[in-house]
């Protein structure tokens, strides 16, 4: 193991925090892509207590804001020549309809579009590494919805909108695998399970969130348990490349989750929205 670099989004809470803590010993450098730098500084201190030689870089990146994502990309491109593993973990559940500055529905923007742009511009660094790995934290919530129309801005109930954004991440994984597995990319999507985290808890619905998690806690995993699927994917990249997986077991995608036509349309639309001429910058 020499000079291995991990980049991860959403490492300041829940599954991402647990994943980073577990993987810290496997890497020499960790880039924490975060929207809350103060939380990340505290987490950095925690990590350094156990891994004093680890090089930890905090890069501000609000995935719901394209300017912020681009600034993070520029920072990383200036400092790094390769990324061995990129984990697209951050995610949001918003119980009320929110539109981002860029005009996208909040969950689609954060869970899919921001990560798409990040991956697009960091792709060259991933492909410069020996490992060439991307792990996407998706969700079985994809199963209950289709993309439908106007999926970047669209209306719907919160769980449908969340499911759509996660469905988009599954199409993204399949596209990456189809296009680049033959040149050594290892891309895996995982479902972490039902995990007790901060997901869906906002200042507006904190009481409700606490109540729901409080009642359901016996049925939820801890964040450490929720990190298991990502960790398995990172540590066994060959085995899980191109798969959608939960704790080592393949999850067969429902027919709509593997629609070739819808996937191609989504990728075309995403490239149009982001003014990109190629699929992933190399
Ligand atoms: N929990 C579950 O049962 C479950 C089930 C299936 C899938 N998942 C997926 O697992 C992943 C991790 O979620 P979690 O359960 O660990 O939730 P969490 O505790 O709320 O953590 C989410 C992480 O994403 C970050 N984040 C949210 N919005 C962001 C933005 N605009 N820009 C940058 N970072 C942002 C959060 O940052 P802050 O710390 O600043 O809030 C936090 O670090 C998500 O992709 C989620 O969809 C979770």
Spatial strand order of the main sheet: 3-2-1-4-5-6-7-8
Strand content: 5-15%
| Alpha-beta content class | alpha/beta
| Ends distance | 25 Å
> What is the correct CATH architecture?
3-Layer(aba) Sandwich
**Oligomer category:** single chain
Helix content: 40-55%
**Radius of gyration over all CA atoms, rounded:** 17 Å
Description:
There is one protein chain. β1 (5-9), α1 (14-23) and β2 form a beta-alpha-beta unit. This protein has ten helices and eight strands. The protein is globular. The mean pLDDT is 94. The relative contact order is 0.14. The chain has an eight-stranded mixed β-sheet, with helices on both faces. It has one domain (5-194, 222-273): 3-Layer(aba) Sandwich (Rossmann fold). The chain is α/β, with parallel strands linked by helices. It binds NADP nicotinamide-adenine-dinucleotide phosphate (NAP).
How would you concisely characterize the structure shown here?
With 282 residues, this protein is an alpha/beta fold. The chain has ten helices and eight strands.
Structural features:
single chain; 282 residues; alpha/beta; Rossmann fold; eight-stranded mixed beta sheet; 10 helices; 8 strands; binds NADP nicotinamide-adenine-dinucleotide phosphate
Secondary structure topology:
Layout lengths: L4 E5 L4 H10 L5 E6 L2 H14 L4 E6 L5 H14 L5 E4 L17 H23 L4 E5 L20 H23 L5 E5 L15 H11 L6 H4 L1 H8 L1 H4 L3 E3 L2 E2 L9 H14 L9
Parallel strand pairs: 1-2, 1-4, 2-3, 4-5, 5-6, 6-7
Antiparallel strand pairs: 7-8
The chain binds NADP nicotinamide-adenine-dinucleotide phosphate.
The site of NADP nicotinamide-adenine-dinucleotide phosphate (NAP) has 27 residues, from helix 1.
């Amino acid at each position: 193991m020499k000079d291995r670099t991990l980049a991860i989004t959403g490492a300041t809470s829940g599954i991402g925090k647990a994943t980073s803590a577990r993987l810290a010993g496997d890497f020499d450098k960790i880039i924490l892509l975060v929207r809350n730098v103060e939380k990340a500084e505290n987490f950095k201190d925690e990590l350094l207590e156990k891994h004093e030689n680890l090089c930890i870089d905090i890069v501000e990146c609000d995935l719901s804001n394209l300017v912020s994502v681009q600034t993070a990309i520029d920072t990383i491109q200036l400092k790094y020549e390769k990324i061995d593993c990129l984990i697209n973990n951050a995610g949001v559940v918003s119980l009320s309809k929110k539109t981002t500055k860029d005009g996208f529905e909040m969950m689609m923007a954060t869970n899919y579009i921001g990560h798409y742009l990040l991956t697009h511009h960091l792709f060259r660094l991933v492909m410069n590494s020996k490992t060439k790995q991307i792990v996407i934290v998706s969700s079985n919530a994809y199963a209950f919805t289709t993309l439908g129309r106007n999926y970047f801005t669209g209306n719907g109930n919160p769980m449908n909108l969340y499911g759509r954004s996660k469905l988009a991440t599954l199409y993204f994984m399949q596209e990456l695998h189809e296009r680049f597995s033959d040149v050594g990319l290892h891309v895996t999507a995982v479902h972490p399970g039902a995990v007790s985290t901060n997901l869906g808890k906002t200042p507006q619905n904190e009481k409700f969130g606490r109540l729901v998690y409080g009642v359901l806690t016996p049925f939820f995993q801890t964040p450490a348990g929720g990190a298991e699927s990502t960790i398995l994917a990172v540590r066994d990249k060959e085995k899980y490349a191109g798969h959608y997986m939960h704790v080592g077991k393949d999850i067969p995608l429902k027919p709509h989750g593997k629609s070739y036509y819808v996937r191609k349309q989504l990728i075309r639309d995403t490239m149009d929205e982001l003014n990109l001429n190629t699929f992933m910058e190399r």
